[in-house]
Amino acid sequence: xxxxxxxxxxxxxxxxxxxxxxxxxxxxxxxxxxxxxxxxxxxxxxxxxxxxxxxxxxxxxxxxxxxxxxxxxxxxxxxxxxxxxxxxxxxxxxxxxxxxxxxxxxxxxxxxxxxxxxxxxxxxxxxxxxxxxxxxxxxxxxxx
Length: 144
Prior knowledge:
globular; 10% strand; mainly alpha
């Protein structure tokens, strides 16, 4: 059973926001859906390491919070697509400064930062991450 959120149950706005985006995968789901509407399998492939159970659970919670829209098409077999609601788009816009801070923070004081490449991008590139994933984080091409 889900806990019903009450307006007075939070200490501050950050507390309320963290209740919605808390967890390892929710912000990454938001990032992936900001790029385009996705089916479940597409989301799972774009988030290496997430299990079906966790992804399904997080999508349900984000849907309950009004962040994600789940569209079911009356086809055989059924097709389901996930997209961001206007509230989800506004949440992504609110998270953008946090992403900027993260890009600046990971590149501070590293030899790669002096060359114009963040430590995260160098590590991701070395770990075989897709170039578009690094570019999507603002750490890839054109950042030198």
